[in-house]
Amino acid sequence: MDDAEPPRHEPEENRPPQRVPAFNVPPVILASLGLLIVVFAIQNLPWWSDDTLNWLYFTFSFIPARYAFPLSQQGLEWLWTPVTYSLLHGSIEHIVFNGLWLMVFAAPVARRIGVARYVIFWILSAAASAFLHAAIYWGDQSLLIGASGVVSGLMGAACRFAFPAMDSRRVGIRQAHLNPRLSIRASLRSRTVVAYIVMWIAGNALVAFGITIVGDSAQPVAWDAHIGGFLFGFLLFALFDKQPRIEVENPAPPAA
User: Fold this and answer.
1) Of 9, 140, 161, 246, which is most buried with the most CB atoms under 10 A?
2) Where does the Peptidase S54 rhomboid domain lie (predicted)?
3) How many other CB atoms are found less than 10 A from the CB of residue 201?
4) 233 to 90, 145, 240: CA distances (angstroms)
5) What pTM, to 2 d.p., does this model score?
6) Residue 102: alpha-carbon gap to chain centroid
7) pLDDT tens digit sequence for 168-193
8) In this structure, is the dihedral angle defined by the CA atoms of residues 246, 249, 254 and 255, taken in order, positive or negative?
9) Angle between the 92-136 and 223-236 helix axes, to the nearest 10 degrees?
10) Mean of per-residue pLDDT scores for the chain
């Protein structure tokens, strides 16, 4: 009979690392993507008549001209369209582009602030984007649709905690939501954040001049709505942050 040997326990540091799922998105982000896809599918049902489609876009798109007339002399569309426009998209390229950026930047924000705050953030960042657009194009009758303003707001919020390293540790993307929050001043002192903001501004400046690098170039892009969303997320993120335990003024320099 062979002697039984007690089980050997490998040292913790010698154990192979656990496999991390390559696709790991918070459920609320998957729900957001699902909602966008369902709405897009409804928009493109083949049996809609032109009159029905015109009603749908008029009822749920954001139109700056609505706010140039007395609200008492029109329907209630002015009340919900500053949010519902963010659920509509004009093409497959449009929704795919916004969906990809949503998965990248919404995930750390949603993990950090939770479902309820994420929903409120979506509503308010959509409205902020829409009303900056309205302020610039006051009285214009064109339609504004798409989640780009909300995505830009999430990008701005991520700049306050997700990019810079607070110390010599390298934090993975799935743990980025655990970083302390940078103050606005400290964010603007972070080379990583500043480099990202400069590239983001440059990209929107090109769009303003009619040059589209990525996305659907067949449709006009509301670059001003992007700016409204980004400023909302960057400047007001602290109001949504459920981890306000420490607001870092100066990010620690990287280790040599």
Assistant:
1) 161
2) 79-239
3) 14
4) 24, 19, 9
5) 0.81
6) 5
7) 444 555 566 667 888 899 899 888 89
8) negative
9) 80
10) 81
Q: Can you say how many angstroms the Cα of residue 207 is from the centroid of all Cα atoms in its chain?
A: 18
**What's the Cα-to-Cα distance from 124 to each of 38, 95, 139, 155, 218, rounded to whole Å?**
22, 20, 22, 15, 28
Q: Give the tokens for residue 95.
A: 């929704």
189: enclosing H helix or E strand: helix 184-189
CA dist., res. 233 & res. 122, Å (int): 10
Q: Quick one: tokens of 186?
A: 């400290």
For residues 145 and 217, give the distance between their C-alpha atoms in angstroms, rounded to a whole number. 15
Q: How many residues does the chain have?
A: 256
Nearest Cα neighbor of 181 from 235, 104, 238 is 238
DSSP states of 50-111 as a string?
A: HHHHHHHHHHHSB-GGGGGS-GGGS-THHHHHHHHGGG--SSHHHHHHHHHHHHHHHHHHHH
Return d(Cα 30, Cα 22) in angstroms, integer: 15
**Distance from C-alpha of 193 to C-alpha of 202, rounded to nearest angstrom:** 14
Beta strand extents in the chain (DSSP E only): 181-182, 247-248
pLDDT given at position 242: 76
Residue 178: strand pairing partners:
none
Residue environment code for 13-26, b if the CB has 16+ CB neighbours within 10 A, otherwise e? eeeeeeeeeeeebb
